[in-house]
Amino acid sequence: MALRAILARSSSHPAAPPPSSPTPSPTTVTAIRAASAAKPAPASSPAGGAYALELEVGLDAVRMASTLCEEVQAQLMRQDETADTKDDRSLVTLADYAAQAIIAWRIQQEWPDFTMVGEEDAEALTEGGEGGAQTLEKITALVNKTLAKHKGDAAPTLSSTEIVAAINKGGGKGGKGRHWILDPVDGTLGFVRGDQYAIALALMEDGDLKVGVMGCPNMPKTGEVLEYDSSYTYGFSPSMVTKMLAGESVGWYKGCIFAAVKGRGCTVEPCDARIKAAPTPVTVSDAFDPVSAKFCEPVMKANSSQGFTASVADNLGIASKPLRVYSQVKYGSVARADADVFMKFPKAGYKEKIWDHAAGVIIVEEAGGKVTDAGGAPLDWAGGRYLDTLDRGIVATSAALHERLMDAVSKSWSSSQL
Ligand SMILES: Nc1ncnc2c1ncn2[C@@H]1O[C@H](COP(=O)(O)OS(=O)(=O)O)[C@@H](OP(=O)(O)O)[C@H]1O
Ligand SMILES: [Mg+2]
């Protein structure tokens, strides 16, 4: 069903909540708390201890960026805004620039000399003539509006010059040392289609990932997004729409932030800070049953060989169809055991960028998983902006299943033409 039709049908019902910032019903929040209380207490939690300030700042920054992205996605869906195409033919929107600006600005408050490897730069805004200047004006207004919403009276008003400087903080070369790694809107195609996307921020020191924060504004609280293939629109699954039409509250139904700190585990909590639910520890799947197992992969055929992943899944005995999901939401899905495996095998010659994986990888690792290239080697975060030494592709799964997955990849490789 087209988005417009879903929204029109939803909004024609008086009890339907707005597409963003849902108000949780007390019953739903109690249910969430009860569910987390039933779980065994985690050995540790990402909050507190080493990197506590980095985590706090990362969460604040990603929350602000998530709010901003939700607003732009709504504008895109109403066709009040459009996406642009960059020189490399990939998509970019106001949100990509504005999210990078607000996150860099927030980090700079705490660490004025920080360095960052981020996806965007401001060249198209500063060298783009009248069009670029107009876009910069919109970005500046959007960032200031978001700051005011989150910081109230304490909010500064940033100038367009400050916004350009903040965006350009993403131009770091990376390598050894301490660097933040940012994909301000990962899965931009999903974003402009009203589907899944992620705001993915990580901190790396000398090649080790230390902190990961990933905002997934459209990721449902439960794994049902993964049950749908292309029928999931703007965070509403068909079953949620049915509930809304029946006047039932869906409470905290979407919008998740994952947080991980090296050695301290991984948690998930609502994206919307107004929804009070304690961060819940997440862990990868602890048992592998091929009959119920699920694997996820990129939506676009151009981004990963779907024939090869099908062959690997077959070797593992996985019977179900692949779950195709945009962005690093796939890593979040493995971290909270919605899926057992994530695989991406790009075409030969494609160079993976560190911002497309860093946050997702530490989130899976701290949830008890293992992420490597197709040869079983860990990813090299200190090699600059690209994962230059990557062997064929990337796999993420539970530590327990990883060796079997490697065997399955080898078996498929020896009989493939990839
Ligand atoms: N040809 C090719 N091969 C492999 N990877 C590519 C390719 N082109 C782009 N990209 C990068 O893939 C990022 C999106 O990954 P996804 O897993 O979300 O893919 S998909 O959109 O679901 O197909 C996407 O990230 P965003 O630009 O943030 O959307 C790109 O960095
Ligand atoms: Mg990306």
TrEMBL record:
GO terms for biological process: phosphatidylinositol phosphate biosynthetic process; sulfate assimilation. Pfam families: Inositol_P. Mg(2+) binds at residues 119, 183, 186, 356. Its cofactor is Mg(2+). Residues 15-25 have a biased composition (Pro residues). Keywords: Hydrolase, Magnesium, Metal-binding. CDD domains: PAP_phosphatase (cd01517). Its EC number is 3.1.3.7. InterPro entries: DPNP, Inositol_monoP_metal-BS, Inositol_monoP_superfamily, Inositol_monophosphatase-like, Inositol_monophosphatase_CS. PANTHER family: 3'(2'),5'-BISPHOSPHATE NUCLEOTIDASE, PHOSPHATASE. This is 3'(2'),5'-bisphosphate nucleotidase. Belongs to the inositol monophosphatase superfamily. Residues 7-28 are annotated as: Disordered. It comes from the Eukaryota. NCBIfam families: bisphos_HAL2. It catalyses: 3'-phosphoadenylyl sulfate + H2O = adenosine 5'-phosphosulfate + phosphate; adenosine 3',5'-bisphosphate + H2O = AMP + phosphate. One of its GO terms (molecular function) is metal ion binding.
